[in-house]
Amino acid sequence: MLDRKLILAFLALGYFFTSLGAPDAFAQQSASFKAVMIYASNVQAKPDPRVAEIAKKMQRVFKFKHYKLTGKGNANIKVPGEGTIVLGSGFRLIVKAKGSENGRVRAQVIWKKGGATLINTQVVMSKNNPAVIGGHSHKSGKMIVTLTLK
Amino acid sequence: MKDNRKRKALSRYLDGELRGPSSSRMASDLESDASLQALKAEYSAIGEQLRDLETPAAPPVEKLWSDIRRDIRLGANQGEDLSAFGSRLHWAGGTVATVLVLMMVWIVMQSGSLGTAAYADTAAEVEWVETDVPNASTMVYLDDETGMTVIWILEQEEGAANAGS
């Protein structure tokens, strides 16, 4: 009888530790976001080494030849919670982290210029796979923002 | 021959099968005939032996109860032996349960980090998108090669010309 209680106690203890270790979809945690704003154009200019890596990828997707860093920022946001990343030149990203599950974060992302909303979207993001938000005309090119969950 | 007849008649007499004058005659013969008396004594002895064989002596009730009590005691002792062994089994079970629980904890913790690693190759998924830019629409494009998810504004003056390849 005592042994049975002992086994039950072990199992209960195991469940307790298991529940501690298991990823909980509703557990509060923080998510770290990194945003980089790039001006993409076809003007002749020296390559910007600060965005060399992402520019290489973008050249496979877009027709632009030149990519230049115009602003960047980070936000460490509690989930659920929201944060704003100011990118300069009147641009900013509002990130509303709504929940996380299995290392992925569901976030509403609002790209704003001044008071205007350029893009309002909801994305489920994985670590190190950027969401690329862009298309807003600027001078002779386009503004592009990459948002990455770190 | 005559002896045989006598013997059969005596046997029937002793078995109670002779009736009436035959039975009376056999009774008077038994009183006068010494050989018949000897035969009767012999039959009686054989009969006793047969009765002993047919009905073995029943054990006294006290002996029966003592046997039952002994059996119960033996059973209880065997049970004690088993429970002593079972106690060790329970401890072994407890140990195995602990190891299993620890393994479960380890696996869950590992799966958490593995899950993150597995999703690291998963592109961002767009659930919905909208824009407030007048006369503009949006486009979502997933590039398999780079793993980038592109959310693009298609502004009126340029349309889709500047968007992805």
Structure description:
The complex is a heterodimer of chains A (150) and B (165). Chain A has helices at residues 2-21, 52-61; strands spanning 29-41, 66-79, 81-88, 91-101, 104-113, 116-125, 131-138, 141-149. Chain A is an alpha+beta fold. Chain A has one domain. In chain A, the strands form two sheets. Chain A has a four-stranded antiparallel β-sheet, with no helix packed on it. Chain A has a four-stranded antiparallel β-sheet with strand order 3-4-5-6, with no helix packed on it. In chain A, a hairpin with a 2-residue loop joins strand 3 and strand 4. The longest helix of chain A is centred in the N-terminal third of the chain and has 20 residues, at 2-21. In chain B, 64% of the residues lie in helices and 11% in strands. In chain B, helix 1 crosses helix 3 and helix 2 crosses helix 3 (34-54). By secondary structure, chain B is mainly α. In chain B, a hairpin with a 6-residue loop joins strand 2 and strand 3. A two-stranded antiparallel ribbon of chain B has the order 2-3. Classes of the chains: A alpha+beta (150), B mainly alpha (165). At the A-B interface, helix 1, helix 2, strand 6 and strand 7 of A face helix 4, strand 1, strand 2 and strand 3 of B.
